[in-house]
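Researcher: Sequence recovery benchmark, item below. Answer with residues only.
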């Protein structure tokens, strides 16, 4: 799933690979998906996009934004998988959108559970997209300790650490995936209430948000996600479905996996005690 490390690093990759490429054709879904969302009728995407050249790509929160001529955008939300195929490559049989370029290369967009492939001009009036554009990212200097402190002060004290960091789009693009290593490195249990966290623990949380997301991004995303060429990201996750059966790298104990707030959480009960 696209979270901050993937939106930034994959957008950088898309800019390097696609800038200057002109769209020659657009093909609609071979495998319709009721949770693949578009803006308007996707059969109009050929008219909107054909003949336009990709000029840049940017990452914003959980969105990858491809920027074309005439202030035209293709915004991809969390849940969309993006793959680049070189000229002559075999076209996969199932996709939700395919864009062909003037050198016979092409981009394939697929959706597993849900996701938006949004083609628009100038502005997209969506609160999640606009929030990702306007709110400070942990990768930016303006996301400083004072800003983080204001987020904490504005949150209800009975919120858990997971709920605070990964819900309500307080920090766009910080989701359940990157949350696991952030909390492990700060030694905070995902169910700890904000009211039980002291200044030192909140300071560790802030530092972990900044440093963990920066490392994930600099390494090209997490190893649980695939880039435009289908390669796993270079950041090896400490806590994920891939590692939950391994011993804790700090204490050697056993990780716990459980469902919480709509997704699995992983933690070490010794390194991340639940203090009430």
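Model:
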């Amino acid at each position: 799933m696209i979270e901050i490390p993937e939106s930034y690093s994959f957008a950088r990759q898309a800019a390097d690979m696609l800038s200057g490429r002109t769209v020659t054709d657009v093909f609609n879904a071979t495998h319709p998906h009721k949770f693949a969302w578009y803006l308007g009728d996707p059969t109009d995407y050929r008219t909107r996009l054909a003949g336009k050249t990709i000029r840049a790509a940017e990452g914003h929160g959980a969105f990858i934004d491809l920027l074309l001529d005439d202030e035209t955008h293709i915004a991809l939300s969390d849940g969309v998988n993006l793959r680049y195929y070189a000229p002559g490559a075999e076209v996969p049989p199932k996709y939700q959108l395919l864009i062909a370029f003037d050198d016979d290369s092409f981009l394939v967009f697929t959706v597993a559970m849900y996701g938006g492939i949004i083609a628009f001009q100038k502005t997209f009036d969506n609160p999640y997209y606009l929030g990702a554009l306007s709110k400070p990212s942990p990768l930016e200097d303006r996301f400083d300790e004072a800003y983080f402190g204001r987020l904490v002060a504005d949150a209800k004290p009975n919120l858990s650490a997971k709920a605070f960091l990964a819900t309500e789009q307080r920090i766009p693009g910080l989701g359940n995936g990157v949350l696991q290593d952030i909390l492990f490195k700060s030694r905070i249990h995902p169910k700890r209430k904000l009211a039980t966290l002291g200044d030192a623990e909140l300071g560790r949380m802030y530092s972990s948000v900044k440093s963990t997301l920066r490392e994930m991004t600099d390494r090209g995303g997490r190893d649980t996600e695939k880039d435009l060429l289908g390669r796993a990201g270079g950041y090896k996750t400490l806590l994920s479905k891939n590692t939950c059966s391994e011993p804790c790298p700090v204490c050697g104990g056993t990780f716990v996996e459980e469902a919480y707030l709509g997704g699995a959480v992983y933690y070490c009960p010794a390194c991340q005690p639940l203090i009430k």
